[in-house]
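Notes from the 1:1 (GR / supervisor)

We went over the backlog. Supervisor wanted to see one worked example end to end before approving the batch request, so GR pasted a single chain during the call. The sequence is below; no edits were made to it. Supervisor asked that the structure be written out right there so they could see what the output format looks like.
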Amino acid sequence: MKAEPVHQVRLLDLQEIDAELDRLKHRARTLPEISEIRRLDARLVELNDQMAAAETALGDLDREQRKAESDVEQVRVRADRDTRRLEAGQVSSPRDLESLQSEIASLARRQSELEEIVLDVMERREAAEGRRAELAKAVDAAAAEREAAENRRSEAVLEIKDEVDSATQRRTRVAGEIPDDLAALYVKLREQNAGVAAAALRYGRCEGCKLALSTVELREMRSAPADEVMRCENCRRVLVRVDDSGL
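Structure output shown during the call:
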């Protein structure tokens, strides 16, 4: 393939722009904010699950407290009724009187036990409410942190987009100066060589594969016409002769 030396050198400019675009795309894919947002999303899922469990626990404790308070009320009502009967002298039989007094004492003990249960439930409910409040704060903090990370990511993406747009415009100008057959070869070699299709020959070394050319290869490069498109024997990239090629 033949191409004017200026066009071959322009191929290096195109390669540099494409490398810049590749770096920008990689940067966009690997922004630290992306992994941070994923981490915070997982944290929010975990916290929301814990919040749901805390809400369920509070609901269970509410029911438990209502039942315990209802039990206390039932015992209290019965004890009050028996006490009124006793105070009104409605029981005259000594045996019935003894039985009634025993029942009142038993109800008092039962009411005391149930009131202890109510206090225990209230204490556990207070602790559960504290846990829910802590989780609510943690959810708010994680959500705020995620929003900040999302804002940073958006700013970085916009910055990268501006750089990509600028580089793309420069690429369009440079690509328009390169002959079609040379441009087609460049595209093909980029696909085959991890995005690097053209490299400069500097001081007898291919900048693509970083290997030094042999004496025979250098002699061929030196004797080849200036418009001959040369290829590296090692990596097969287009090898462009420049001022400091060492020929």
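Supervisor's comment: The radius of gyration is 42 Å.
Batch request approved.
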